[in-house]
Amino acid sequence: MRQMIWVFDFFGLAIYGENLNNIFESAERCLFDTDITRKLATTHQAQRWAQAGQLSFAEAHPPKPITETLFPDKPLLLMPRDMPRRRLNSIEGKAAFFHSLTHIEFMAIYLAWDIIYRFRGLPEQFYRDWLRIADEEAQHFELLSSHLLTLGIDYGDLAAHKGLWSHAEDTADDLLARLAVVPRCMEARGLDVTPAMIDKLRGLGDDAGVAILQRIYQDEVGHVERGSYWFNCFAGQLGLDPEQTYKEKILACYQGKPKGPFNREVRIIAGFSHNEIDWLEERLHDE
Description:
By secondary structure, this protein is an all-alpha fold. Helix content is 67%, strand content 1%. It has a two-stranded parallel ribbon with strand order 1-2. The N and C termini lie far apart (59 Å).
């Protein structure tokens, strides 16, 4: 039955896309299609084509405006301040916690595809890197969605916050700002907080949840590292000082102060400099 479903999805993709073995056509299908199953299938198929040398990176038609991006009807999206607070050590709180993580990983699929789709004329390896990241984010979403079912809910049953996508909209016309704010700020925050989440779940005896978060944590180090690598690369090509440019983009494009404390050891592995982390810590304590 699973194979039959995949064949149906595959031919559905062929019907809806003109040339889905082109990375930009695949990106457009994922960003402007509300069907989650088809979105995941497109992502995995594109990565398989890339690994097999069958994916085209030829320029396609220009990207549509980011404001036209389509999302599923559920979950209900709220501002972060309007999200209900629940304790992790209750059944309801644990379900809400994992629903929130599932939504973050779902939005991460969009963020990875959008940086591919929106910014053209870049090295092929850049697009390969972010396609791999999109595929890993889709795997994370699938792992978390399955875990949610063991807690008695499905993705979309609870409200979720809409803060992540606003960062994409704010940086839709500035690649360096996108790299600074999304992988090097929002995703990097996961490097700071995930170890404590893992310890909390381990204390609650949720071995399956621990395994999922450990997998996500390991992959996210690599995602942030790719953000750091390409930020530094493109800044250097423009004759800009990467550290100074990072500070300028965060000040200009990130609302509020970056949250700490910062996991210095892992952030260094993920491509941050000590000077950048020192500056973030200074910003944290600025009045």
